[in-house]
Amino acid sequence: MGTERSLCQYKPPVFPSDAQIKLNPFASTGLPILFSRPVISKSFGQSLYTAVLSPSPILVTFQLTNALPNCCGQSRATTSLQWHLVCGFILGALGRAFTILLMICDASHPTVRHSSLMCFVSSTQFLTLEHQNASPVAVAEKKYAEPSVIFDAPGMLGLTMCFSVVSMFPCVPARDAHMVRSHTVCYLSLSVSFCFLCFTAVPVNKRDIIFLLDGSFNVGNTNFPYVRDFVMNLVNSLDVGYDNIRVGLVQFSDTPETEFSLDTYRSKADLLARLRQLQLKGGSTLNTGSALDFVRSKHFTEAGGSRIHENVPQLLLLLAAGQSGDSYLQASNALARAGVLTFCVGASQANKAELEQIAFNPSLVYLMDDFNSLPALPQQLIQPLTTYVSGGVEEVPLAPTENKRDILFLLDGSANLVGQFPAVRDFLYKIIDELDVKPDGTRIAVAQYSDNVKIESRFSEHQNKGEILNIVKRMKIKTGKPLNMGYALDLAQRDIFVKSSGSRIEEGVPQFLVLLAAGRSTDRVDVPAQNLRQVGIIPFIFQAKNADAAELERIVPSPAFILSVESLPKIGELQPQIVNLLKTVQNGGPPQVPGEKKDVVFLIDGSEAVRSGFSLLKEFVQRVVESLDVGPDRVRVAVVQFSERARPEFYLNSYSDQQAVVSAIRRLTLLGGLSLNTGSALDFVMRNMLVESAGSRITEGVPQFLIVLSASRSRDDVRGPSVVLKRSGAVPFGIRIGHDDDTEMRTISYIPDFAVVIPTFQQLGSVQQVISEKVTLLSRAELDKITPVLTLSPTGVSSKRDVVFLIDGSQNTVQEFSYIRSLIERLVEDLDVGFDTTRVAVIQFSEDPRVEFLLNAYTSKDEVQTAVRRLRPKGGRQINVGSALDYVSKNIFRRPLGSRIEEGVPQFLVLVSSGRSDDEVEDSAVQIKQSGVAPFTVARNADPEELVKISLSPEYVFSVSTFRELPSLEQKLLTPITTLTSEQIQSLLTRTQYPPPVVENDAADIIFLIDSSDSVRQDGLAHIRDFIGSIVRKLNIGPNRVRIGVLQFSNDVFPEFYLKTHKSQAAVLDAIRRLRFRGGSPLNTGKALDFVAKNFFVKSAGSRIEDGVPQHLVLFLGGKSQDDVSRSSRVIGSAGIVSVGVGSRNVDRAELQTITNNDRLIFTVRDFRDLRNIESQVINSFGPSGVTPTPPGPFSPSTPVAKKADIVFLLDGSINFRRDDFREVLRFASGIVDTIYEGGDSIQVGLVQYNSDPTDEFFLKDFSTKEEIVDAINKVVYKGGREANTFVGLDHLRKNHFVPEAGSRIDQRIPQIAFVITGGSSVEDTEEATRALSQKGVKVFAVGVKNIDLGEVSKIASNSAIAFRVTNVQELSELSEQVLETLHDAMHETLCPGMTDVSRACHLDVILGFDGSQDQNVFVSQRGLESKVDAVLNRITQLQRISCTGSQEPTVRVAAVAYTPSGPVEGFDFSEFQPDLFEKFQSMRNQHPYLLTPDTLKVYQNKFRSSPAGSVKVVIHFTDGVDGSLAELQKASAELQEEGVNALIFVGLERVANYDNVMQLEFGRGFTYNRPLTVNLMDLDYELAEQLDSIAERACCGVPCKCSGQRGDRGLLGSVGPKGMPGEDGYRGYPGDEGGPGERGPPGVNGTQGFQGCPGQRGTKIFKKLLSFNFAKLIDSFTYLYVNSPLCLDGLNGEEVRYF
User: Fold this and answer.
1) Distance between CA atoms of residues 34 and 16, nearest Å
2) How buried is 1455 (Cβ within 10 angstroms: 0-12 exposed, 13-18 middle, 19+ buried)?
3) Is residue 809 located within the same domain as residue 934?
4) Do residues 98 and 44 both lie within one domain?
5) Considering its fold, how many domains does the chain have in total?
6) Is 1030 in the same domain as 971?
7) Which of 1028, 949, 1041, 1061 minimizes the C-alpha distance to 1001?
8) pLDDT at 7 exceeding the cut of 70
9) What are the pLDDT digits (tens) for 1419-1461?
């Protein structure tokens, strides 16, 4: 639809000369003022009219006297009349003075300020009629709702007297005298009316104004204060108040963000205070269209504080400093249609043409040269902002209008939409909102379907828009697994499209069915679809997710009626298309399109290469346009400029006539740029111009022409985008200027003949006629006869690729991280991203790596882009590239995590680093290249040799001096990623020279265990630290050589770093230098040895004990242990760990003997300062050159060990599996046995089948060979049964199978494994049975198939790591590899020899901190804080069990700590949950203010020092913004992390400032848990619990990431609870604001008469005569006439005005 927008402003009225005149001085009211035919001269009538309208009696006087000579003709009479008028003016002035006095006395009344005669005239109809024998009538009527102003009645009374005197003069002709008398009666009546209306309301100037501010980097922090001052100056000039002018503010860049709404602030002072705190939002892109749509839907609504339904003018002031990055026309038109008056202010790079299209009217655009001028702009804006109103929008229909229609929305309500139904519901809501829903217009019905149909509303039930929208708003997903689409279609025809349900099908009203399908139907659709078509129902289908296109095409008459949904969250993009179809389609065929319609897009080179010829380019485009029949229903035109990027100048729906298009072309300015990305520009046109929202009619079959003008070769590939364009139906023409090579233009053009090459710009005129003729003459029919030539990519190059971005997230990249993010965004945009094409993953690293998302996390480009835009730097001081490469090689390029490396898909790694690595990279680089991955390196200020070691080859090393240069590398990276094949990568890798392999006996793992108790003292630790450093310098440190770990102990254990932490000598030495004395007593050496055995000499900590690498423990002791060391020493010795004892003079040598079990490995010194004397002896104990001698004892880890296990399968034999499915389950079980059972293994297998009760198929003791077991499994017969009771099955296993009598070797410590495969939920809860098996030592694996969710499967399994789920039995084979890996680990699982395999304990210490505004108490200003903290305390202290804790839940202790200027404040110390914790937290409300500074984080650091070693340390801090230096806070955050704190999490309070900066301080948050957390989140307690759960898994169980399922919809409100006890008295309130003056009281009692005054001076004779006039009698007479005369006569029906 097109729009014509009219703008109204008050202008002074002009007296008309017609017989009957309509005047409208205020367009906003639309109320006419009518006068009868003038019966005296025009000049007298003008004077009288002005007298009525003028607020100045003296002006009336002179106007009337100047007019009278025309009717009197005698100067004497004129002079006399002037004297009488002067007298009348004097009386009127006296009356007016009295009125002004009243006004001064009552100036506090808000409406007095607005009093004027014009106010009354502008909103009143009044008539003056003159006819023979007519009676005088004056009509002045208006209904008001509020008390109002005192009008100028005394002034009018004086003027009325003037008119009375005039009527007495003989010089006035009788007829005119009658007229004067008539006007006199009218005017006096008006005067009396005004007196009566003294307390009737006139509305004040109400307006709703939204400021929409550019918050992107186009403005920047430097210029933002000017923007803030501009808004404040403007607000300061407005009459801001809740009942007057309301103000709201939104900032936007890539997304909009509400600062405050229209109803947030009720006073100007509060509003200005908030504006002073306004900070720049930040962001690189400017999506103006989405921001406009946001303010329309969220702010110009009643919910957003708008008074739009009260007809209060709605104003939007947009300030932009750049061009929009998205389509904005549709959003701006929607605002105009809603009656919103849009003003636009442009600065910096703002585009004038764009702003003129957005503004309600081009005159409302204000362009500023620079930001400095902004604060002065309010002087220009204040008048239009307070006087302009929307004159309305006239819709110009471009398509048939919507008439009567019956539309049924039939939505997939099955499990296919779980978690995504809200997006579908909102989409449906918006569609219905745009339709003309009413009983005699469009009727709506809504239903959901899955296994059956749920009818939400029939055509007869909710026929008004508001009613049906309320129904839609409350809709919940139906759920259900089967998708019976055929049944739903049949029911729709039989039960909804019938007269009894409100359908008007028998009246011939068009019947529409809008079907959403997100999966394949489980029943037949052919017959129901045919029946629908036979009765004339027109179907439209949204195809989403796994819907079968072929199946859907059998339902619709043509594929044009199927709209494909890329992903359900993006379904809203199809809203304009479906609304247009529902409004315009009249029958069952596709919309018919007239032959003359065409859409033409010009894509013109805007680079510096065309600067000299740009005017000729514009002239060429203009001439082509002038040859076309431009119009909204004929030819539409758009123009796009491009160089490195594309910029739309105007869209296909921007202009509706040829002259407007030509004018826009003439205004074009050169874009600029050094090179061309033509391929990217073609893709931009396809995605942003040839779409319905931009005015394209491509879906209607209108020919789409694209004319490309280019003067340079493209820097990127044009083949792919040109193929996409041509396949979509676009017809490109290519014109190359200045180059002889036409290959590129022939590739782009629809057919090669459509390509043109000319030598200079001057020759453009010669091809203009050719292009014009082709565009004009080529019809749809002609184009259908032409087959486009598609130039495909080179043969053999597949689009399948796996690309992993490994990016530096350390604090070195914080300032330029946005450039890294933008590089990834642009590369992803250029890649063919999809699950079956290019997959993308992102990993961040600093000290350690962090997964942002994996290769199989997202399946579409939009999902990947969204995830990339959420990236924030993880922080950290070090850049450990080596460990990051090692992590990626072992954990990312693997099949279970989405890599297709085994399928031969090319694997690429793009490394972005900010400097030289802090660890060794060589071994890790070799490892990743040997696995077949092609690494590319992008680095700032890095070591070139290091980069060459990592890269695929030297040509793929890219160095920059700053990350701002990254855009220049885009194409250099894109080319090899898109062109290199697996064979080429392998060829390059084979030519790589790798260093010789590491000698095996050069490797060793050495742990230094240091006594840091009080007996050692601080100086003793310093000597030990120096001694260890000296030893490390002499060792060959490296990931595949010597690894070092260090921990301290006293009464507790303090890990410093693990064997896997540091991979270079420099990193180890740096960590040793940071060792600090811990202190404490007594000395618990036994406890420390036990901790080392369990936590350091294990694979997860970096120990290579299982690989046969020698293990060494160097113990430094300064005294005798207070606990037993013998048991721990035996464990360490039996594990093959060689212990070296170093003691001071106070050490117990016998104790050292017990620990080392070897006198030669005990070294004592008098004092630790003498340690250097024994350095060589300690080093020699490791063997020559760091080679460790073979440890004593039988330990030989390299010897292959046969697998031993007892495995019992528990298989669901109920109807959850059909007979054929059960055979697949058996095949899966036998396959597992066949794979894991190898020669020499001792594996026993049993099998139980169950439904409501278990059946023993065979026991562990029954078969002894693999062949017998596999054969027995395959002979199992399907049992059947109505229900499955997994609880009974598990309990049966415990009692009857995992017992020695059944063959179990549980007493021999052989691993006991239960393997459950179930197809549905258990009728009884399984947790108790699983817990009983786990306590017995049985590990329960669980696989869920079909109708059971992963959460329930996890309850069956011993832990979530061995719980698996697939959607059908066919997918079991894909699960085999993952199951086998975990099963293999389970069969080898032991902690240490001689120790019982028990679940690991997990202890969390959480500090709950907060800060608040310095202006007021945070407990007062943040009203939701206390309730949120209460919920959080309850939730996080009751964590569920995690994967390694078995049946016990992690213990969580919480402390409440905050920091004030006077020091730390502690609400309570670390405690497990108690009801009184929250009360203790509330007691902190008395302190104020609380701050977030570096000292705050140091307080947390000190607090954690009292936590036990090995506990997981987490800080959750509620904040309203930083109070100190961000750089200092980042440093403090890094120190907190180095101190061993596992996570720092921030929660933003209301009105948090610069939250992006605060988030930069965070660390340790789990995989996919990186979205901002705010106190307003409805489920904040659940979010934080998930965070802690993920952190606990990572810290306690070594699980790098954990994904929690999506939470379901919030349930219905529960019933109202009983009334609680009365609360305690509240705090004394603050004094309120001083009240205004009260109402005027009643008149007092008359006082006594005063003394008579002195006689006054004698007046002139005329005054004496005038004063003798009986005014009281005259007023009584006119009052009587006024009260008894008929009102509101218009003279059109013969009414007369009678004379006296």
Assistant:
1) 11
2) buried
3) yes
4) yes
5) 8
6) no
7) 1041
8) no
9) 777 877 888 888 888 888 878 888 777 667 889 999 999 998 8
